[in-house]
Amino acid sequence: MPGPGRQGYPFIPFRVETLVPDMEPAAVMKTLRLACSALGWCVILAFVLPLGAAYLLGLSPVAVSALIASAFVIEDGSIPIGIGLGLPVQYVVPVATSVEAGIFLGLFGILDAIGTASGRVAAFLDWTRRMTARSWMFERYGIYGLVPAEILIGVYLCSPASWLFGWQKWRSFAITMAGYCVSAAAITLATLGFIHYFLPLI
After folding, report:
1. Is pLDDT of 5 > 80?
2. Where along the chain do its domains lie?
3. Is the C-alpha dihedral spanning 82, 88, 93, 98 positive or negative?
4. pTM value?
5. Residue 145: closest CA among 114, 172, 183
C-alpha cells in the first residue's frame, strides 16, 4: 500500500520490449493523454503566460525571451539577468516562478507517461518504492527534502525524484515551489541590494 504522500503505479505483469507497440489502445491513449497534459502545462506556464503578460505590458520581446531561456537553464539565476535587462522586478520574479512550475509539471508528467507505458519502468518503480518504504523516516519525512534540494540543485532533480519515490504530484509540486520561492526571494533581494549600493559607485 502506498504511504502518505505517495501514489501507486500498477505493476504491469507482461513483458514490454518497447514503449508503445505492445500496448492496448486504451493504454496508448492514456499514455498520450498524460504526455500531452504534461507538455500543455509546460507550454502554458513557461511560454503563454510570460509572453502574454509581456505583450500586455509592452515589454521588450528580446529581453523577455532571454529571461525565459535563462530560466530554463539556470532557474532562479535568471532573476538577476531579467533585472539587468531592464525588465521590472514585478514581472521578472513571477515569470521565473511560472517557468519553474512549468518545468516541474512537464517533467513529472512525461515521466508519469513513461511509467504508465513501460512494464520494465513500472517494475523498477515498484522495486524502488518498496526499498524506500523500508525506512519509516524517509517514508514519512523524505518529501520535505525537496526544499533544500530545490534551493541547492533545482527542479531538474526535484521533479524526477518526486516521481521516482512515488510522492503525490501536487504535494511535491507545492513543497518544491516553496523552496524555489525562498531561493528566488533571497536572490532578488541580493540583486536589488547590489544595484542600490554598488552600481551608483561605478
Report:
1. no
2. 25-201
3. negative
4. 0.84
5. 172
